[in-house]
Amino acid sequence: MVSLRLAAGCLAFRLADGFARNALLANQIMLFQHLCHFGTNTAQRAAKFLNAACAVTPLVVGAYQSRSGMKLSMLVLLGCVLEALCTATTAVVGASPDWALSWEPTIRPHESYAIVFVLTAYALGYGAVTSAMPVMTRRAAPEGSLCAGLMQAFVAVLSAGAIMGISAAALAQSYHEDHWALLSAVIALACGICFLPPIGGTPLPFARCILRLALRLGPEELALWEAREEATNRLLGTSTTPLGAASEQSLSQLMPLFWRLLLLVPFYGAAIQWTTSWYVQTAYLDRNVAGFKVPVCLLQAFERLMSLAALTLLRGTFVLKLKPSTRLSLGSFLAALSMFCSAGVEIWRRDWSQRLAGDPDISSLTVLWLLPQFALIAAAEAFVYPASAEFVSASTWHYGLGCLVQAAAVAMLGLVLGQLQDWIPESSPNDGHYDKFFACVGAACLIATVLFLAFPFSSSSMSALR
């Protein structure tokens, strides 16, 4: 059934989950390098494969949920437990020199098995939460403007949580105590799950306050929402369409959606850079700004802040009335601009700027020159993610299909990096050509921009997929 308390609980949990994920993933390149003794190229590949695994598991978990009939709330609980356990394990290993892998010159077989197990378990937990939360949140509100507003707030609180999580990671990094950020992520998950059943729930007065702030609702709208709670029974229900029927539909109806999602592959390739290759690029720039040394991961918080600002600015404009294909085209174009911008900065950093005195590997070019590319990719995400979500969030199965394409794009990029040692070396980026890599991704985004314009589609043309 429609539930005001569940809607508020979903927002509160999503805020905590956004904090926890980004507190862990903000410095994932550094964690792979320090704990696993990976080189720069291998660390980036590992991060991309982890992101691909996290992106593909929503399809697997969504298919399982559709077949088994598991309650969405129980799926979120299991996913949250897996995320917390894996994050806590990483924190303990990072805080205990006797357990860390950095003191060994190479990784022993049993240690590599442990790494794979932890990453797989985390990806499963990530997939469980990611596949269930959008569907459960959508079912918590009445159809219409209240549901649309709730889904917009759902995306916004995730970005807000990400900003706090990245900031926590940056603060811990500045004190060389990265494990404290991970431990705070575990605490955040434990607090967040208390807002959802079956562990606890959100008290009604607190739920009203959350929805007033997040959705800007007045007393009359909240009263209408509460009056609708007894009208339907969709709170924790499962999909009424069996998996077999969904599979049959996918053969005849999902192909138009699927090939359009394939056009987003270049965008996904660009979007993953701000947590991987741009992380490395940041580390080799002058990070001293007004006497403050900017932590490497802090620009990711700027990206999330710009994404939140773009989502807020677009909410009341004509842009949201454009066809999804038009918005996807605009997002792909902005992603292309961000990649070309990063390529230009990389050439300047590597070839045209001097090196810092006492540190010949670090460019004297200020890290502030990276802000435009982070802002551009944030704006691209504000166009692409809401537009693509319009026709993939109807069920865990459809949502998983969109995640599958994203996973394939990131995994393919990880495989390609293994063949680009001359461009993305294991050592310093000063020895490679990151600019050529960025330019190729940007060119692919431009091609996708043209194709989205050449083959337009509207929301109504995709209504059969819902």
Automatic annotation (TrEMBL):
The keyword Transmembrane applies. Gene3D superfamilies: MFS general substrate transporter like domains. The keyword Membrane applies. It is found in: Membrane. It is a multi-pass membrane protein. It comes from the Eukaryota. Pfam families: PTR2. Belongs to the major facilitator superfamily. Proton-dependent oligopeptide transporter (POT/PTR) (TC 2.A.17) family. This is Protein NRT1/ PTR FAMILY 7.1 (AtNPF7.1). The lineage of its organism: Eukaryota, Sar, Alveolata, Dinophyceae, Suessiales.
